[in-house]
Design a protein that fits this description.
This protein has helices spanning 20-25, 59-75, 94-105, 118-127, 137-149, 154-157, 172-182, 295-303, 338-352, and strands spanning 39-44, 54-58, 83-86, 109-111, 132-135, 162-166, 185-192, 197-203, 210-212, 217-222, 236-242, 253-259, 261-262, 274-275, 280-281, 286-288, 291-293, 312-319, 321-330, 357-362, 376-378. By secondary structure, it is α/β, with parallel strands linked by helices. A hairpin with a 2-residue loop joins β16 (286-288) and β17 (291-293). α2 (59-75) crosses α3, α5 runs parallel beside α7 and α8 packs across α9 (338-352). The structure holds adenosine-5'-diphosphate and zinc ion. Adenosine-5'-diphosphate (ADP) is lined by residues 45-48, 166-169, 188-193, 255, 257, 278, 281.
Length: 383
């Protein structure tokens, strides 16, 4: 294939896909499109499975990323004078520095508090009068509980107005819990290391999907099984082509993330297409006795049952058949509440279509993670 082979948008479908293993197989820097001395910085993805993926940026790439992050902050309403408490991890993970660059691009004041040390995080949030919180949604849900446990009244002690949450799937119920607790407006942000990092897509004030920065990313949806390109509006795997990246210009990169693309103009007036909030990755989909289940469906059910805590864990095991168990925290007085247990079980069955063993566990007993939450424990033997 030659550059001349691509004359119209339809020709893009002739380009073969790039997949995660192409990057892994060329670890660390086997697919650079520029000589190494032109690299300005390197990051690496968390690499939950196997070797990390190293991503490279030229100076221009870094400027482009910063500009996209700046726009992302702008869409969410962050301005000069805002105080951004950036609780994404600083380091190889693109979240920390990505949000840092975005805050600087709009002229806001950035507090690089990074992940962890929750007590200090809350103290700074109050004393520095942070107006914007940026972190993983699971950590913000944890801060709802932690701030009360530390004796704060979240709505009066803090002055947060805007939240920028992403890097993992989260439910509308989690959004409601965060907004009700802190009285802020929560925006979903989407990105991935291979596509610069965060700042690929952001919800505007309409919050009817996330605008993808169309001047930098060409977005398609495909059938994950056949690779066939789908019409806008149908659910499929997101595939991105970067339009100006220098160091690692990925073409038709398969994300494994499931969503839909909407091309109609948004009521906010922006023409950048929108993607629906991500339901999950096709690879975090659990197949339990032949039934497809996304952890986000479990969260959706749990957050709608009154009387439960915020933390949960999904345990999959195999005893003759695949078994699904959900551990969810509940307050002391309700640990033996059979009605509550029954309600969770019935609601999970209604949504998932399979039986689940539910266990109410003491508040504080499940692991809290500061970066991306890890909700699933799969004990099934690997073949
Ligand atoms: P890793 O692939 O190692 O987790 P990244 O930090 O680059 O590294 O993660 C990118 C992935 O995170 C995306 O492909 C997507 O699955 C998930 N993700 C990022 N932002 C969101 C979001 N707003 N909603 C749902 N999932 C998200
Ligand atoms: Zn919009």
């Amino acid at each position: 294939m030659k550059p001349e082979s691509i004359k119209t948008l339809d020709d893009v479908a002739k380009i073969p896909f790039t997949v995660k293993t192409d990057l892994r197989d060329n670890y660390p820097l086997g697919i650079l499109a520029v000589p190494p001395h032109r690299l300005y910085c390197l990051h690496a993805s968390s690499g939950t499975t196997g070797k990390p993926i190293v991503v490279a940026y030229t100076r221009r790439d870094l400027e482009c990323w910063t500009r996209l992050m700046g726009r992302t902050f702008d869409v969410a309403g962050v301005r000069k004078g805002d105080i951004v408490q950036n609780m994404y991890g600083y380091g190889l993970f693109t979240g920390g520095l990505g949000f840092h660059y975005g805050a600087r691009a709009v002229g806001a004041t950035v507090v690089p508090s990074s992940v962890g040390n929750t007590k200090r995080q809350l103290m700074l949030m109050k004393d520095l009068r942070s107006t914007v919180a940026a972190c993983t949604p699971s950590y913000m849900v944890y801060l709802c509980e932690a701030s009360r446990a530390e004796g704060y009244s979240p709505r009066t002690d803090f002055v947060l107005k805007i939240g920028l949450f992403g890097a993992e799937p989260w439910s509308e119920e989690a959004r409601k819990r965060i907004e009700d607790t802190f009285g802020l407006r929560a925006h979903d942000c989407f990105g991935m290391s291979e596509l610069y990092g965060p700042g690929v897509a952001i919800e505007c004030d309409q919050r009817n999907g996330l605008h993808v920065w169309g001047d930098e990313f060409l977005v398609e949806t495909i059938n994950p099984d056949t690779g066939e390109v789908l019409e806008p509006g149908s659910e499929g795997e997101l595939v991105f082509t970067m339009l100006s990246r220098e160091a690692m210009p990925l073409l038709r990169y398969r994300t494994r993330d499931l969503s839909r693309v909407f091309e109609e103009e948004c009521a906010c007036g922006r023409y950048h297409s929108r993607i629906q909030r991500i339901k999950g990755r096709s690879d975090d989909m659990l197949i339990i006795g032949g039934v497809n289940i996304f952890p986000s469906q479990v969260e959706h059910v749990l957050m709608n049952v009154r009387g439960l805590g915020d933390q949960y864990q999904i345990v999959v095991s195999h005893e003759e058949l695949d078994r699904l168990a959900v551990k969810v925290e509940a307050p002391q007085g309700r640990l033996n509440d059979f009605e509550l247990l029954k309600k969770v079980q019935t609601d999970l069955f209604a949504t998932l279509g399979i039986r689940t063993r539910v266990e109410l566990v003491e508040e504080g007993s499940l692991p809290r993670l500061e970066g991306k939450a890890k909700r699933v424990v799969d004990l099934r033997p690997k073949e």
